[in-house]
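Chapter summary example: a protein plus flavin-adenine dinucleotide.
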Amino acid sequence: MLKERLIDALGSDAVKTAPEDLAVYAFDAYTDGRLPTAVVLPASTRDVSAVVKVARACGEPIIARGAGTGLCGGAVPIIGGVVISFARMNRILSLDAHNYRAHVQPGLINLDLSNHVASDGLFYAPDPASQKISTIGGNIATNAGGPHCLSYGTTVNHVLALEVVDDRGEVFTTSCDDPGYDLTAALVGSEGTLGIVTSAWVRLMRLPEAVRVWVAAFGDIDAASAAVSAIIAGGIVPTALEMMDAVITQAVEAAFHAGYPTDAAAVLLIENAGFEDDMATCESAIAAIVKEHGALSWRAAHTAEERAALWAGRKGAAGATGRIAPNYYTQDLCVPRSKLPQALRAVEEAASAHRITVGNVFHAGDGNLHPLLMYDKRRRDQVGAVVETGNAILRSAIDLGGTISGEHGVGWEKREAMTRVYSTADLATMARVRDVFDPQRALNPEKIFPSGARCAEVTPP
Amino acid sequence: MRTVAERTAPESVEALSEVLARCDRERRKILIVGGNTLNGMGFPPEQLDVTLLTSGLAAIVAYERSDLTIAAQAGATIQMVGALLAANGQFVPFDAPRPQYATLGGTLAAGWLGPRRHLYGRPRDYVLGSTIVLADGTIARAGGMVVKNVAGYDMSRLYVGSFGTLGVLAQVNLKTLARHPCARVFLAPLPERTRTRACHQLEALAIRPAAAFWIEGFHNAVDGEAGPEGRVVVMLEGSEALLERATRDLRSALGRAGVPETRIVDAGARESFERVIDSYIASLGERSVTYRLYGMPDESERRVLALQELAQRFLLRAESIVDVMNGDIVLRVSDLDAHALGAKIEAFDDALHEGEPQAQVVAGEHPHRVYLRVWGAPPSSIERMRALKARFDPNGTLNPGRFVGGI
Ligand SMILES: Cc1cc2nc3c(=O)[nH]c(=O)nc-3n(C[C@H](O)[C@H](O)[C@H](O)COP(=O)(O)OP(=O)(O)OC[C@H]3O[C@@H](n4cnc5c(N)ncnc54)[C@H](O)[C@@H]3O)c2cc1C
Ligand SMILES: Cc1cc2nc3c(=O)[nH]c(=O)nc-3n(C[C@H](O)[C@H](O)[C@H](O)COP(=O)(O)OP(=O)(O)OC[C@H]3O[C@@H](n4cnc5c(N)ncnc54)[C@H](O)[C@@H]3O)c2cc1C
């Protein structure tokens, strides 16, 4: 019945229902859930709208899906349902270089956009490390960050307007220039629970005139993280300020020969983009702080190739850990930037208490940690230890005034942890927004809100 | 509207919560007042029983200088927060008119987009967290004091620009920017023949100005000198080293466009910039109405000329400010007196909205304002906005009738 009606609406080549075809849609980069009932590959907004109507009529929930690189189970069907894959809606619909904006479909790969507009001297700023594969739609739904978000801001700062299909299959648009409530801001980061994004107008930026990349190496992690806190406290906010520990740099060098020193306990990868006139001052200010904190070395990348190699290593870091252990789990938390040294010490303590190898590769300038916990999925004891380590790390972040996710999202993974940072009233207030956009909880159910949240939604007297 | 309303200024979040819950139960309508500098936007309240002042909630809660974050209560003024940050070499680019009165809460509730946003982003992108009190007294927090946070919906951003119709902001946590930059302002006459090229040159500058205005009329905004010619006001911001090059580039760009003598203001640059901002809300009492329009930079010249022509057809005097970098337009129409304006303004408002359905009224004391399209045409998502209002404030207790579509 569902299958027939979907095929009627979209044609048979756009509808998958065979279990072997559905299997890959049960996963994202975090976990696997149940098989969806069906997967559809719409080619237009109208298709999406039709799918939602059919699915709702058949009582099936709807899960939007980009590239499935999400790290919190966001795109995974927890109770089955119809998965809408945006693989065929991956075009740039229009480019207005003069006014710095592009209208794009949600399935467009993040990096394809920057590559396409480079000849106009422009780029799209949000640059998650997954940008070679993750989609603009997935980035919008998770409010994705990336190394350069330190100075450019996360995805929400770069979305101007959205076209959205709602829970009843109706299309609506929002623009942040509209009078009234900023629905665009509410939709970005809502992980597919408030509407399905079918196209977006995004802001483009001018490519910087000058770019410098530096690498600083440290003998211990504490010194490196203290240097990061000092750089920010000193009022110097470079374009990107990333940190990698020895576990990571060694894996990266083995895989890519990117140019990082392998004998340091931690390295900082620092980029400043902007104007030539400001570079010397910026370099000397950062170099001075780094040296004050006992850096072993300080090096500038001299050519565009060197810079690209360093960045390729950074963005490929997670994948490179395959040499250390068959599996890794990425934790994502954010703490006030002055608390970075304590946060990293807590990570180290939690990992060693559970005898888990941890590698740190993260957006240090934002205080956004990503401990990668290495393990072997086939070993039950290790799986348990990883879960406990992850929880301990989260607890310490909360104790330091931080939050449970800086950029990957809540999804399925962290829904129960929401009660640790928000009160019942806080969550009930969020749920009021859900009530308006998706009263039946048909859009990406079982995500973000803790399982007990429905009772909490009763408005207090 | 009743004339005598109870006034209350709660001094704690709990007290605020009690006031709201009580009024909500008793179906009394509340007008939220911050610095009250924004009396030009929005419809007058439908009914008003209680005036709620945020002046009792004006403390700095936590200033984490080395984290570049600050938490302040909503009644704190823009100037007070700005001064504290400036003393520590930091700033937030909020640009509110009359910052000595304008409050954080009011400015964020108004959600106005200022001229420096193309460079620094929107006010909402500086809000890391918030405490809001809903009409039923619920105290809800969102976000926190970290610069990246995707734990749940971004409620704080939703409250920005909600005009006090979803709840009363009690506290906001902000991200600050380091290194208060040097500023330099350029003033020059802008004869008609140079205009198009000058605006084009400004947009194309490699070092983008922090703000650039093409002003017709609004003489107090610039130099107080009346004259038939337009003016250009440009503010550069950045390090000293950068300003030097930017100054050379700007001078030759304006020179190429044929703009005559340029006056440079260094000491007092910010004041010159703020004079322009203040003039956004300057009304001529009951004999003017000011509109505001958003748009694309490359369309603003054509649009503003059409608007001036339209005003002329109605024999109204038109003055305008074009925000060259963002494409926004401010248009003030006026007549000799309230009566003369009153005779034409509704017809003008109709004609204006035919071509520019989104134009909003932002200043002018005219009694006819209730009949004007104060918020422009309702956006296509208006029904969803109404539903949101109904879910947050089902009894219509907060600022009833003032917002878009009568929300
Ligand atoms: C190696 C690696 C590195 C990463 N680095 C970063 C990083 O630096 N920064 C960062 O933020 N993240 C990072 N991530 C996480 C992930 O890439 C991001 O969360 C990304 O935004 C997900 O995009 P996607 O297209 O893969 O979305 P998916 O995983 O398919 O979906 C993610 C969420 O978005 C929803 N969704 C997708 N499309 C739509 C749509 N059109 N409308 C509504 N909802 C939709 C889904 O339902 C789901 O909830 C990384 C992941 C990996 C594997
Ligand atoms: C560049 C620029 C130009 C501007 N030009 C104009 C203009 O031309 N006309 C204009 O009207 N405005 C303009 N504004 C809007 C500006 O933000 C306000 O004028 C002013 O800053 C509001 O602050 P206030 O404390 O005086 O608020 P008020 O005037 O007291 O209140 C403003 C609105 O917010 C609500 N409010 C106040 N405090 C709270 C709170 N704590 N929680 C929830 N709601 C609250 C009020 O009910 C009211 O609806 C401009 C802003 C900028 C940045």
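Key point: Chain A touches chain B through 82 residues (CB under 8 Å).
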